[in-house]
């Protein structure tokens, strides 16, 4: 069992960029706590079945035990994004990128979160600018440009949950 667990984590670590430090950390974590694979499976099942609170608790537990696993941070970011917690999502994606800066899913999801935050800020600016306000045309133009982005198509003229960011 330990061998298959170590192989699983080795494969996962190699997928995160081939970093030998990540492989070493994963193997040491397994040696210290063989239940990590079980926790990871439970977290994945909860994540896939939409049990956000359970998945979050399990992934947080994994993140405390294996803090240098980019996939864990990516999943946490997705959970936060799905639950309209953009600041926490962005922090988790940035943590994943500190571990593996070649993780394109984290870059994509971070950009979607930030675009949606910009969208929400511009909607607030629009709500607080009058017709005679010098910024009104700039705010309207920025909203018009953002409305053409695929990542924001699901959010016409409103700020809301970040569904698209979690596709990856």
Distance between the termini: 30 Å
CA radius of gyration is 19 Å
Q: Assign the CATH topology.
A: Serine Threonine Protein Phosphatase 5, Tetratricopeptide repeat
CATH superfamily: Tetratricopeptide repeat domain
Largest sheet: none
Please tell me the total number of domains.
1
What is the strand tally? 0
The helix/strand series, from N terminus to C terminus, equals HHHHHHHH
Strand content: under 5%
- H/I helix tally: 8
Global outline: elongated
Low-confidence stretches: 1-20, 156-164
CATH class descriptor: Mainly Alpha
Q: Taking all residues together, what is the mean pLDDT?
A: 81
In short:
The chain has 168 residues and is mainly α.
Q: Any overview of this molecule?
A:
There is one protein chain. By secondary structure, the chain is mostly helical. It is built from eight helices and no strands. The chain has a single domain (2-167), classed as Alpha Horseshoe (Serine Threonine Protein Phosphatase 5, Tetratricopeptide repeat), CATH 1.25.40.10. Helix 1 packs antiparallel against helix 2, helix 5 (70-82) packs antiparallel against helix 6 (86-99) and helix 6 packs antiparallel against helix 7. The chain is elongated, with a radius of gyration of 19 Å. The model is unreliable at 1-20 and 156-164 (pLDDT under 50).
């Amino acid at each position: 069992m330990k061998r298959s667990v170590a192989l699983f984590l080795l494969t996962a670590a190699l997928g995160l960029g081939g970093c030998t430090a990540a492989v070493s950390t994963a193997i040491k974590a397994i040696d210290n706590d063989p239940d990590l694979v079980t926790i990871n499976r439970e977290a994945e099942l909860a994540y896939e079945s939409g049990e956000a609170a359970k998945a979050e608790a399990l992934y947080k537990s994994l993140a405390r035990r294996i803090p240098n696993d980019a996939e864990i941070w990516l999943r946490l970011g997705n959970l936060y994004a799905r639950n309209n917690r953009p600041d926490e999502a962005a922090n988790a994606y940035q943590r994943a990128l500190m571990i593996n800066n070649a993780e394109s899913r984290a870059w994509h999801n971070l950009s979607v979160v930030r675009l949606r935050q910009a969208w929400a800020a511009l909607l607030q600016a629009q709500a607080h600018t009058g017709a005679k306000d010098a910024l009104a045309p700039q705010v309207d133009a920025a909203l018009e440009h953002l409305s053409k982005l695929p990542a924001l198509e699901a959010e016409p003229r409103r700020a809301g949950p970040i569904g698209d960011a979690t596709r990856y």
